[in-house]
Amino acid sequence: MKTNQYNGADPGGSAGARLSIVMPVLDEAAVLPRTLRRLQGLRAAGHELICVDGGSTDGSLERCLGLADHLLRAPRGRASQMNAGAEAARGDVLLFLHADTVLPQHGAHRVLAALTRPATSPVTRRARWGFFAVRLDGRGAAFRVIERAMSLRSRLTGIGTGDQCLFVERALFQQVGGFPPIALMEDVALCRILRRAAGAPAWIDTPVTSSARYWERHGIWRSVLRMWSLRAAYALGADPARLHARYYKDPGR
């Protein structure tokens, strides 16, 4: 299913490079209209927006009509959905955006500038992928601590998460084979692959704003401990399918 085909307009900046924004969708009808409306300026500038539905039952796909360049269906699972969107993409750079995450002002320009910035020394390479710092939309000091810890951890390790809007040159994404077909931690796995293949990521310190609904629904510190335990288990070699079952043990996300 496709609607409003990409018009090829020159967005300006970074030698005319264009983004393909890939958004995996699953039962996000409540937040999609607002998220998609915020991206219409980027579409008007010539960037491409692809929504990939994983089997929504709440009318999510219909909410995307007229607000995206391509509407696709793929088997449920972020890795599967994002790979399907990337396969359909025609932009120079892929940016993977969650339906409940908001790019900062001039976000597309910041991405393209980060990927065209020369290497800082003869022994380093120009960045070909990267991610943003993150801000959570929840109120309270606890969320400020969490978001700073997330950003610091990812900057020190070179490993970002899906909430941080991973971006990567499309050619590099194709070269490494896309997201590994695993049930959970696909973002962490891809970052590790990209770091080995292309070196350190670009870091954009102007944050994206991501929803705090998971923490609010399940309890802030309980959620933090749960996520840390899942990441530790994955680092120690746990099966992503088992981790997925633990993560989704409670209904909703």
Structural write-up:
- By secondary structure, the protein is an alpha/beta fold.
- The protein has one domain: Spore Coat Polysaccharide Biosynthesis Protein SpsA, Chain A (Alpha-Beta Complex).
- The protein is built from 11 helices and 8 strands.
- The chain has helices at 32-38, 40-44, 60-63, 78-88, 107-116, 141-157, 170-176, 186-198, 213-218, 220-235, 240-247, and strands at residues 19-25, 48-53, 70-73, 93-96, 101-102, 129-136, 167-169, 202-210.
- An 8-stranded mixed sheet has the order 3-2-1-4-7-6-8-5.
- Helix 10 runs antiparallel to helix 11 (240-247).
- The longest helix is centred in the middle third of the chain and has 17 residues, at 141-157.
- The radius of gyration is 17 Å and the shape is globular.
Number of E-state strands:
8
Secondary structure category: alpha/beta
Looking at CATH, the homologous superfamily is Spore Coat Polysaccharide Biosynthesis Protein SpsA, Chain A
Give the integer mean of the pLDDT values.
86
**Helix proportion:** 40-55%
Looking at the overall shape, the CATH architecture is Alpha-Beta Complex
The radius of gyration is 17 Å
Q: What is the domain tally? A: 1
Uncertain runs: 1-14
What is the string of SSEs from the N terminus onward? EHHEHEHEEHEHEHHEHHH
DSSP strand content:
15-25%
